[in-house]
Amino acid sequence: MAIEKVRSGEIISADLMNFILEKLDTLEDAINSIGEDDRIIIDEILPEDGVQVGGRITIKGNNFIDTNPKDNVVTINGKVVKEYDAPSSARVLTVFVPEDIDVVDENGEVFTVTVDNEKYESAEARYRIYPKSSDPVPVIDSISQADDVSNPTLITGDDALIKGSNFSEDPQLNILRIEWTDNAGLLVFYTNEDIADKNGDIMIRSGDASEILFEVPLIDKIPEDETQLTTVTVRVGNASISVESVDVFRPLGV
To answer: At 109, phi and psi to the nearest 5?
Structure first.
């Protein structure tokens, strides 16, 4: 579409305005992508509100080494991360905050998180870490269909049951996540947490300190009649526990 100069007194059409906005978006994307091919990018760190010492965090960005996550040296407040978790890819790193980080303020302290590798150098971001809680860490004993606790394959749109201990007595205070890394290396996650970039919501129906009943979301990211391998996480306060290799099946027509 050729751009014609607007003469005095003329009304700018919606088509022209939309064309200009699209061009501005394209220009912004091009500017933001400059240099991304040859350096590490850290876009954000989840959970947004921070975690306690020893907690699990997800670093989203680009140009991480995906053949072996430990080829990326992650440091938090100068302490080298030793424990890595799934999902991890060129765009996602999942790690545990080192236990030897000293946090004095009970309201948390903001530290520097650095990711470094031999191919793309390094990048850093700021993130809040809380002192280790005296509250017990949640424990997951099993995850299954609610109607058939012997079946560990979750079904989209159906209820599922998590059994364990140290969950919140108020079921709505338990933060659930179902997540995996897609073929493009992007993190896909569903949660009941109130954050902006989730792919969809999880509805918690009921629960107590030993079980959580929730509805598996209608995950359109899984092709119909296929099963996706996921990681399920329960977080209570700043303490969390994750279970890998949880199958989620999407039936035909769902």
So the answer is: -130, 145
The bridge status of strand 139-145 relative to strand 239-250 is unpaired
In the sheet with 211-215, reading across from the earlier edge strand, the strands are 139-145, 159-165, 211-215, 203-207
Q: Judge residue 206's burial from the number of C-beta atoms within 10 Å of its C-beta, 0-12 exposed, 13-18 middle, 19 or more buried.
A: exposed
User: How would you classify residue 91: left for phi > 0, otherwise alpha for psi between -120 and 50, otherwise beta?
Assistant: alpha
Phi, psi angle pair for 119, to nearest 5°? -85, -40
Residue in 109, 123, 128, 108 with CA at minimum distance from that of residue 57 = 128
Q: Domains (ranges, CATH) in the chain?
A: 38-130 (2.60.40.10), 139-250 (2.60.40.10)
Outline where DSSP puts E strands in 64-165: 73-76, 79-80, 84-85, 92-96, 109-117, 121-130, 139-145, 154-155, 159-165
Statement: residue 1 has pLDDT above 50: no
**Distance of alpha carbon 180 from alpha carbon 229, whole angstroms:** 7
Question: Which residue from 175, 173, 179, 176 is spatially nearest to 60, judged by alpha carbons?
Answer: 179
The single-letter code of the amino acid at 114 is T
pTM of the predicted model over 0.90: no
Q: State how far the Cα of 174 lies from the Cα of 172, in Å rounded to an integer.
A: 5
Contact 67, 117 (CB under 8 A): no
For residue 172, the model assigns a pLDDT of 96
Instruction: Give the bridge partners for 246, in sequence order.
Output: 230
Name which of 147, 179, 144, 148 is nearest 164 in CA terms: 144
Confidence check: pLDDT of 2 > 80: no
Do residues 71 and 25 touch, judged by C-beta distance below 8 A?
A: no
